[in-house]
Amino acid sequence: MRVGLFIPCYINQLYPKVGIATLELLEKLGLDVYYPTGQTCCGQPLGNSGYEEDAKGACQVFVENFKEYDYIVGPSGSCIHHIKEHFDILEQTEAVINVRKNSYELCEFIVKILGKTNLGASFPYKVGLHKSCHGLRGLKLGSCSERMDNYYSTEEELLKEVKGIELMSLTRKDECCGFGGTFSVFEEAISVKMGKDRIQDHLDNGVEVITGADHSCLMHLDGLLNRNNQPLRVMHIAEILNSSI
Amino acid sequence: MSHAKLAEIFNKDEAKVNWHDKALWYVREKRDTAAHNVKGWEYLRDLASGIKANVLSNLDNYLVEFEKNAQSNGIEVHWASNAEEHNEIVYKILMQNNATKVVKSKSMLTEECHLNPYLESKGIEVIDTDLGERIVQLAKEPPSHIVLPAIHKTKEEIDVLFQEHLGTKPSNGDPQYLTNEARKHLRDKFLKADVAITGVNFAIAETGGFVVCTNEGNADMGVHLSKVHIACMGIEKIIPKEEHLGVFLRLLARSATGQPITTYSSHFNKPAPGNVMHVVIVDNGRTEQLSREDFRSSLSCIRCGACMNTCPIYRRSGGYSYNATIPGPIGSILSPGMDMKKHSSLPFASTLCGSCSNVCPVKINIHEQLYKWRQIITKEQKQPIVKNTILKITGMVLARPKLYAAFGISVRWMLKYAPRFMVYSKLNAWGKARELPKVENGNFDQWYKKRKNNG
Lengths: 245, 455
Fold this sequence. Notes:
The complex is a heterodimer. By secondary structure, chain A is of the alpha/beta class. Chain A has helices spanning 9-14, 16-28, 44-48, 56-66, 77-86, 94-102, 106-113, 133-138, 154-159, 183-186, 188-204, 215-227, 237-241, and strands at 2-5, 32-34, 71-74, 103-105, 126-130, 166-168, 209-212, 233-236. In chain A, helix 11 (188-204) packs across helix 12 (215-227). By secondary structure, chain B is α/β, with parallel strands linked by helices.
């Protein structure tokens, strides 16, 4: 099994440690992981801003980089969702179809494709899980509070096996954090208010570390935590699953 | 003003935002509980979505069938291609009956057509009889929510409003006292009305009858006390058969307020002896929306308001921030079809979280349509130069890996070494209330290159 590691642009530039944790984790699982150099971005920021046409070049670069792999795995639900959902703007060649089909968010890949949940990690902290919308409602990583389906959560399946972890329950299980890509700057007031409210929910429920499968949400929350000096920190789920504290 | 601007103004009073958010979240939770109590809720949604898709594909036939059956029941049917025609038809009926006093139960269509100001300009008294609607009418405001029109008002504000308009005593916002006073005030209006106007929730092609759902019984009260009943409906309100009501009535109230059913589901089939009944069927842009393949399912909406209650943006920006007859997520996909220029900011008033599509009882893919409107609006409406330029350049850079690598390095360098006052300038909307990420030494690319044992 040849796995292509997809490191989203903002993680590459701003959170290399999240990329490192992802790679180390996949290698720990005994996989052949390749990191195609020359990666840029999936084009999501453009698509969500209404500039899908201008993202075609980025999408093509993505397909070129990853077309030869059996699986494409990335630590960001919304980027994977964009590839699966919005690469319909490209001509649907075999390469494009395969790339869309074989792209997986990290947690989903581990649970669904590898069939593993216990990764031997330990992390003795009180953790709150932020269920990012594109992963939850888009990729269906878990059941959604609006729908009357049986309960499940891919991320929780993994986190429950982490030694020492205490998963805290939230008052609003899956409300959006307000990041929303360029929404965060074009609708700044609401974006900030949504983020503040999300953080308050974690604080009210005794959370020490907010985690999630999409670091863009966590970047937004982290920006607020740092500005307001709040006693919480954010960590990508790959960092927790890769830790042995 | 754009949604962002109006939302920013609403957010100046954070306590009020919190109150508004909690009030609507309470309704969303009631909806969840009610839906959980229905076995096969998701199946019911599938059914409703399928019936509506069938309606939209056969709308012409169903409308003609409805007209024929309604006429044979003794109902007069009128067709209006736009808001002006609708208003003129209603006014003509009022004139034919020498009517000067009208009571009206809730109808978003008459809001859309601006019927009240039109009739008032002709000297007609129009009283909205739904309590929430009456409150906003007294305050000279439009509804801020389609099911809960006065949800933006606290009981204390209503207390003051009633003192001014209904001569009530100060009661510290006592809901029971205020409701009783409104009841007395409205009772008088009901008794003196010449004509009752209602909306239509479901018009049944098979029978030529229609159903109006209210919690206050105000539609019935108005109709029973007037000689003339005018019901106004959009062309999309048709359902094929009476048996389909079993699907929609189970979904509507649960989605709207978490009730198993509205207190009144009033079936109107023919006028009472000696009375007259009119139905005005209105297009007003709906046929055009029907022609837009990506957006046609927006016409399946049964106006439950669930998407507003669940929307984290609506809850924190208030109904008026949308500056449209139908606010919230569903309004944001309907309104650009009516006036794209005026409503061009609405599809962007969303994080595309998808909660709206999940609660929608007829499964409209609202958030996907928001995404699609964005693609059209950036092409057809002038965008701010800065936004346009930045995004076009971004697209160009992301298509060129080498340029992107150089760009990444320089942006990180700037974030690391530029003085704070420059990075956190007025242009940096992110940094107004948030810190930017702390830039580490090197990016993932650089780390990977230096690493040994790479695959």
